[in-house]
Amino acid sequence: MDTHFAQRRRRDLIMAGCLTVIAALVPLFVKDVYVQNIMVLTLMYAALSQSWNILSGYCGQISLGHALYFGLGAYTTALLFTKFGVLPWFGMLAGGAISAVIAMALGYPCFRLRGHYFVIATIVIAEIALLLIQNWDWAGAALGIDIPVRGDSWLKFQFTRSKLPYFYFALALACIAWLVTWWLEDSKWGYWWRAVKDNPDAAESLGVVVFNSKMGAAAVSAFLVAVGGSFYAQFVSYIDPESVMGFQFSLLMALPAVLGGIGTLWGPVLGAVILIPLTELTRSFVGGSGRGVDLIVYGTLIVLISLALPRGLVSVFSLRKEAAR
Amino acid sequence: MTAPLETPLLETPLLETRGVWQRFGGLVANSDVSISVGRGEIVGLIGPNGAGKSTLFNLIAGVLPPTQGSIIFDGEDVTTLGAAERCQRGIGRTFQVVKSFETMTVIDNVIVGALIRNTVMRVARKKAYEVLEFCGLAARANVMASDLVPSEKRRLEVARALATEPKLLLLDEVLTGLTPVEAQTGVELVRKVRAAGITVLMVEHVMEIVMPLVDRAIVLNLGKVLVEGKPTEVVRNPEVISAYLGDRHAVGA
After folding, report:
1. At CB < 8 Å, which residues of chain B contact A?
2. Which domains does chain B have, with CATH numbers?
3. Residue A184's closest CA among A212, A227, A223, A221?
4. How far is B117 from chain A, CA to nearest CA, in Å?
């Protein structure tokens, strides 16, 4: 039984390695900038959803307010760079750290709430943060921040001529989020989180400090999402409150995980690979006002998946394995 | 950590409740309950429905603090400690309504318990497997907890609690609702647990099963300790009979 478990862990790692190599080679064949753009976004959402999955999937604390951390990451990096000339790399770490601290500060009251009340709290807090930023003149208020272009360099993390550096960074980000999840899955925290999700009372009786477990999950999750936000700010080089902190980001982080399999290692990746290209394509093919159409596609997919495969698309693979046994 | 109130000698009881009260609004669930459980004992906590057994259990396990009174465990006042901290001190428990981690495998359920003593995953996994063997669940280690039959789920509750290496194991109706054969297996498991040096306090409904098993029985009625003593004496006690069956039946005893 020990070997069975170790084998699965090793197989996951090897598979992730292979997929990374394949993904890294794709740009050699795909030169179309539009397609490359979609690939960057797909990888970014894979990373974001993987991070969201840590708090909401593994620990079971469904957050629909993660746009807050995404926006915090984006704003921290952009503000530090434009106002103080701090390199985006430090901005990323600072944004991550600020988000983690804020996640815990918010978790302090919110983790006393259970179920739907917690979800509602996360939505409301993110909306409040959005309003605050929209009215904060120093941070550009509703107009946002234009990140000045200072030439292509890895040091300033700006690239105008090619999308490839962004692509590889997004790939690295997705790998890191996946590896962190992989590592945490077989750690004290991973077990505690799943126990908290399944039954907090039983978990507490087995020595799990439920509150601290949730705080830990929130901090890790918020940190990684904020790094994603920092990346996004550099990638689009112009941010405004609605475009980095809007409610749709909270949804876009949650949906791939839900579609692929919430609380699973591969769910977010699988979900992002299917959902994000689909959205981008519907958006461009169904016309300019397509913002609604991609959400309709999402909604339909989610309804179909929850009806047919409540445990997400990854459950197809485990079902086949069980049948083969 | 609170300083020990007295040196934990072998003679001092492992668990003591001193004048414990629990009120839920106007309802008094426990009134002035003082019981003690010695090291290595199997003590049965019995009483009719609504006697306050489960409340007392929750007070001992640290689910809620008592309205009044104190709980001493292993020479330390644990009254203000939460459930997780009491588990750390050596109080393990099962739940009357089983609370398995349904989306996890059987062994993963037990690993959660084992992690409190050792956070190296390989060690915790090995420990969990040993506990499953002890409880006769090793064959089901990689099955999802949701796929277990009720009697197996009860044993999983015990296994999970044992993985935390408790000094005191609180069993909340683990033998209730089982077939006679399953109940007998359960009784043997409880004996094995005690043989491993773990003190057992069990709430149980079914007198025929509990009485031969326990060293001592404490009868609760209407939130108070009615009598306590050897099981053979307790079952013949007129007060106990009248509490269970009503006054008319106590006359003949």
Report:
1. 61, 63, 82-84, 87-88, 92-93, 95, 99-104, 107-108, 111-113, 115-116, 119, 121, 125-126, 129, 141-142, 160-161, 163-164
2. 15-250 (3.40.50.300)
3. A221
4. 9
Lowest mean pLDDT segment, chosen from A27-31, A117-121, A259-263, B88-92? A27-31
**Cβ <8 Å between A201 and B142:** no
Of the candidates A2, A203, A209, the beta carbon closest to that of B112 is on: A203
Output the DSSP codes for chain B: -PPPSS---SSS-SEEEEEEEEEETTEEEEEEEEEEE-TT-EEEEE-STTSSHHHHHHHHHTSS--SEEEEEETTEE-TT--HHHHHHHTEEE--SS----TTSBHHHHHHHHHTTT---HHHHHHHHHHHHHHTT-GGGTTSBGGGS-HHHHHHHHHHHHHHT--SEEEEESSSTT--HHHHHHHHHHHHHHHHTT-EEEEE-S-HHHHHHH-SEEEEEETTEEEEEE-HHHHHH-HHHHHHHH-HHHHTT-
Question: ipTM score of the complex?
Answer: 0.88
Question: How many A×B Cβ pairs under 8 Å?
Answer: 84
- Domains, in order of start, for chain A: 2-245 (1.10.3470)
Determine the Cα–Cα distance for residues B154 and B176; give it in Å rounded to an integer.
10
| Cβ-defined contact of B112 to A186 (cutoff 8 Å) | no
Q: What is the pLDDT of residues B41-83, one digit of tens each?
A: 999 998 888 888 889 999 999 999 999 999 999 999 999 999 9
- Tell me the whole-structure pTM to 2 decimals: 0.89
Q: Residue A1: which of B102, B142, B163 has the nearest Cβ?
A: B142
Nearest to B141 among A1, A197, A206 (CB): A1
